User: What shape does this take?
Amino acid sequence: MGLTKDEALQRLRTRGLRATAPRLAVLRVLSEATGPLSHSEVVQRLGEVDWDPATTYRNLVKLRDAGLAPVVSRVDGMDRYALSGERDAEHRHPHFLCEDCGRVACLPDELTESLSVDGPWGESIRKAMVQLLGACPDCLAQPG
Ligand SMILES: [Zn+2]
Ligand SMILES: [Zn+2]
Assistant: This one.
């Protein structure tokens, strides 16, 4: 369910950003991901491109600052970015880091609904970045 080029152009334009090849490519990669991605995961998914990883990073930061690709996960101390403007754009759901393959997956909201409370901790819990660690289903399914 990736962004079309027109949609990506539109997003850059509404934020007053020039539509450069790295920006369009980073938006496309984020829009095709099923979970938030770190800088190195974005670089990896871009594959062979005409610019270096530092350029990708600078553009990722630019998109972040413009609100197009907020950091939605800091599991393991690493910033991971996701496209804004999607359903569930703020990723206020828990994330799961697989310690075997390193992927970060979005988990259903229901997992944290039981944590909903009123009172002084209510807002804190709504804003918390919940992170779970372990082995993902794919890794668990692998023999050995
Ligand atoms: Zn895994
Ligand atoms: Zn998520």
